[in-house]
Amino acid sequence: MKITVKAGGLLYEYLPPERTANRATLEVAEAATPAQIMRDLGFPADASYLVIVNGELVPAEQRAKLQLADGDQLSINPPLKGG
Prior knowledge:
single chain, mainly beta, Ubiquitin-like (UB roll), 5-stranded mixed beta sheet, 1 helix, 5 strands
């Protein structure tokens, strides 16, 4: 199945080289989870991220459970910082 991954900020560097700016279309296994995709792309496991699937925030405890579907849009962003 195919999904679109969008990476915010400098996180685009974890997307494959064939990306377009900060987006990439990926072929992934059926029932892949956001946690699996992030691991496969090499995102550091010890960092904090805002993860959104189809416009809905995915809490950290759900990232290894939520199964993605064909055509889903996964957005991975660095945490927001106040000032």
